[in-house]
Amino acid sequence: xxxxxHKRHARYFxxxxxxxxGEYTSxxxxxxxxxxxxxxxxxxxxxxxxxxxxxxxxxxxYRQQITSELCDGDLSRAGFxxxxxxxxxxxxxxxxxxxxxxxxxxxxxLLVLGDDLSRVDRAALLSGLxxxxxxxGSFLSSLHGGESDMRFxxxxxxxSYMLDDWSGMDREKTRExxxxxxxxxxxxxxxxxxxxxxxxxxxxxxTLALMGELESALTEQxxxxxxxxxxxxxxxxxxxxxxxxxxxxxTFWIGASLRLLDAYQxxxxxxxxxxxxxxxxxITGGLSKWPGHGADPxxxxxxxxxxxxxxxxxxxxxxxxxNVSADAVEVLRRAQARWRDLxxxxxxx
Length: 349
Hints:
349 residues, mainly alpha, two-stranded antiparallel sheet, 14 helices, 46% helix
């Protein structure tokens, strides 16, 4: 009988923190997200003590922040990078700017490590966020080019929620973008007229939830259609689209969507665990996307966070919309309470 390899997964995440495999060099600009998977994964496993010098990790994250002081007056560049531009952390030129996904994962990582976010330049980050929103409601990933779709809408919503300030987002345009992306089969796509997808469905549902508009924005028919589409993704594990192979990352993407839609009770968690367990690497730890393939940080983290939703023994409970532990959310609540006693900040154009 297969079992959950708790200690080996903790060892895998610690390895990812200490020494990124050479095959991931192409992801150097996304190092912040790889760090988030490892740190938050250890937190969910209750093994955060394996990070022996948390303060040095916190300092590395803050060195990736492009603050108002470093922007030379151009706050549209503000936020967090994915990795260092140079040894000092200062921007090199006008093309050195933040990335909305790295800003989300930087804030989440700081919270997981217990940081109070007191050094976050909230006004600058909100201004950088506002500069990324397009007229149609979507968000660019970064100021100079890059993609724009539901992934970055979600990251912008998560940042706004964590900073307890929505002045960096036109909420009405965001809501309309989500609703225009709902498809004929009841799923949600990366943008209008595209194919429904498990990842974009989560991003859209979580965005509405973080905005506090999940119930008001969707009709009963739309909600029921979403639940039907998500539940239809389960064979043993979940897949991300009709007629596609089951994949461990959708343990979270689809599972969290159903949790937010108050329909997780319909998931066959016994089958889901069976699939996720089969994707474990019994030697190194970690999870692959499906059985027989190599483990990677993304599928390991999303598989484990999805198992948390399923009530896996030995895992901390997770906040379905933010994808961090309940402990990290408590740290966030304390930071937000402190901000409410301070003069308000606001994004500027």
